[in-house]
Each structure stands twice: as C-alpha cells, then as structure tokens.
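Sample pair:
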Amino acid sequence: MRSLDSSALLKGVHMEINNVAKFEKISLEQYCKDTLGTEIEHVSATVAAMLKVEYESIQLPRRATQGSAGYDFYLPTPWAFQPSMDNKIYTGIRVKLQPGWMLALFPRSGLGFKFGASLKNTTGIVDSDYYFAENEGHIIVNMQTNTEFILKEQERFVQGILIPYGLCVGDSLDLGEKRTGGFGSTGR
C-alpha cells in the first residue's frame, strides 16, 4: 500500500477550498470612534497622529501554515491582560462573508493553557450581515483571564475559523429586522 504525501495532499486540498471571505480594515474614522469614543476631529493633533500610526500597523488576519484552519488576529497595541479588567480589544478588522458562512472566534489555545484566557462570550460569532452594521462590522474581542499577562503589539491572541451553516426547513425570520451593531444587537 502506498502512503500519502502530506504536502501533496495539502496542496490538493488548498486548491479545492473556495474563497468565502475577505478580511479588511475598518476606516480610520470608525477605529477612532470605537477606541477613543469620539470623532477623530475632536482629538488633539498628537493623539490623532498616534492613532494613525496604530491604525497603519494593523495587520489583516492570516493563517500560520498551509494546514491551519484558523486565521490569527494580531494585537494592534500591546496589552496587559488583567483578571478583574474588561479586556475589550478593538481589532480594526472586519470580514466580508459570502451568504451561508460565519466566522467563529476562539482564543489561541496557548493563552488558554498558560493563563486561563477565554472569550467573555465563550465563542465569538461574526455573521455575514455584520459587515453592514453601523460600526462597519468592526470585530471587537472581549477576553477574560485567570492570570495577569502581557502581549506585545502584533502578537497573535485569537483565531477565526470560517464555518458554513445551514437553515432549517420552514425557517422564518422577520425580514424587517436590521442589524445595527454587535454583541446582542439583534432581537432588541
């Protein structure tokens, strides 16, 4: 019996996988509004310049290896994680998804093992219509931890996995319902 060449197998699988999503940066204006809580015109020139440098350094998520399922997200700034703190991280990223697909966010497993890090909402679900939300579909991650730890700028902290989903027979929804934001924004 002949063994499979894993590199050839991965190359073949990669060719058969459809591209179903595209990561993008949100606008600088939205990044300012989310991170500072105000319009960029209302901050000092020094703060605006620092924010622009931070914004320019944002990296789009990417896979580490050809066989990786998860797209690693990178911290736009250094972060000191605290057990008693609200560790809400503004990634500066949004994702355009084809219908029938979602992005699931999970903490990187090493952070869970070393520091007890997890997402406050257990698993982050990014729906395809979130891209059109009022906040430009800004992916915001809220983490909790058992232990203090620090990650440097551009270190990987969560990973996103693209997952197809289906609908139930007889599925009905309110076609008037419009997404306005994230974190429980539908069904209000």
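The domain at 21-26+61-164 is CATH 2.70.40.10 (Deoxyuridine 5'-Triphosphate Nucleotidohydrolase; Chain A).
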